[in-house]
Design a protein that fits this description.
Blueprint (H helix, E strand, L loop, with lengths): L1 H18 L4 H6 L7 H26 L4 H44 L3 H15 L4 H9 L2 H18 L4 H9 L8 H25 L4 H28 L1 H4 L5 H9 L1 H30 L7 H15 L4 H31 L1
């Protein structure tokens, strides 16, 4: 059980930085659909639990350090080659989004130049990638209980202190930018892009399990924890729509609205989540190109860290709205392949 929970927490840590720690992703994929976003959270929870279980078990079975073997196993060599290229590109795009998210957080919370924020996260990520894989997985998992506690406080406060009626909340929510035309597609795209970006590292995490059952339970635990976090963030945003309109980091804005100390704690949690996702995504991207034990591994990490730093100034909100949606449609192919594999195994 302890091993399964560790795997589940690492799964959550991998997703939350790119998935919802800032709140911008929740806004575009869930909250912008108003009260229907609750149904979206249910769909997302089921999707994450089912897919997390299967991906972790595939990782245990293949014992791989890269997503290449996984997509070939799921989709065959021809389609697998296409998916391999697309996933590799998007892994780097999500890494860049994390650098951009740090730049936005430094500007919004500290009033610092975004260059400082992006450079800070790039250096931290590059230095972490010099560690071994088990150390990286532990880093990814470590801050999740802290985030869960903070999100519970923020959600309860938001509900108890909202100044808006349900109708007013809905109107404001529906005026926000949406990443999909309806709540169901929004939830499916959200799960899909997180799976597409996380499948590489999730299989690596699964490969460290002591048994297939431990790997599968870890995936299920991760999906359920993600569902709880999605629900908490979504409720907080919906209750405080008048506070979060037009900001890059809405969850941090709500936290500061409660108390400056809560705001600082949330900002630290946000940076920890962005960091964990940046580490997971960049590691998955690099090891697809260069084996970790290769002598050019470290210079390659530094090189792509510099490229990611330069690319991060496209802007966080823009990256969330465009890159994530495209990645979501790519993820549908991976989800279909996983589901078909699961169904054939059952038969």
């Amino acid at each position: 059980m302890k091993s399964s929970l560790r795997i589940g927490l690492a799964f959550v840590g991998l997703v939350v930085g790119g998935g919802f720690a800032s709140g911008q992703e929740m806004m575009q994929f869930f909250t912008s659909f108003g009260i229907y976003s609750i149904f979206g959270t249910i769909v997302a929870t089921i999707g994450f639990a089912f897919l997390g279980m299967n991906i972790a078990q595939i990782g245990y079975r293949l014992n791989t350090s890269s997503h290449k073997e996984v997509v070939y196993f799921l989709a065959g060599r021809t389609l697998g080659s296409i998916l391999d290229i697309l996933i590799t590109v998007f892994l780097f795009c999500v890494t860049v989004a994390m650098f951009a998210g740090t730049a936005s957080a430094f500007r919004q919370v500290l009033g610092f130049d975004p260059v400082i924020g992006s450079a800070f996260m790039v250096v931290l990520t590059v230095l972490t990638l010099m560690l071994n894989i088990k150390s990286i997985i532990n880093v990814i998992a470590i801050a999740i209980p802290y985030l869960l506690g903070l999100m519970l406080i923020i959600s309860v406060f938001s509900i108890l202190t909202t100044d808006l009626s349900l109708a007013e909340q809905t109107i404001l929510a529906q005026q926000q930018r949406s990443a999909a035309p309806n709540w169901l597609l929004g939830a499916l795209l959200y799960v899909s892009y997180n799976i597409a970006s996380g499948v590489a590292m999730m299989t690596v995490i699964g490969s460290t399990a002591s048994s297939k059952r431990v790997a599968g339970l870890g995936g299920i635990f991760g999906g359920l924890i993600l569902g709880a976090l999605i629900l908490l963030v979504n409720i907080a945003l919906f209750a405080k729509m008048d506070v979060v309109v037009g900001v890059d980091m809405p969850i941090v804005e709500i936290a500061f609205n409660i108390h400056p100390i809560i705001g600082v704690l949330m900002a630290i949690a946000l940076l920890a989540m962005i960091y964990s996702t940046a580490v997971g995504m960049m590691y998955s991207f690099i090891v697809r190109l260069i084996p970790p034990k290769d002598k050019v591994y470290r210079p390659t990490v530094v090189f792509f860290g510099i490229i990611g730093f330069i690319a991060s100034f496209v802007g966080f909100t823009t990256l969330v709205g465009q890159v994530y949606s495209l990645m979501g449609y790519l993820g549908f192919a991976i989800i279909a392949a996983i589901t078909i594999t699961w169904a054939s195994k059952r038969n």
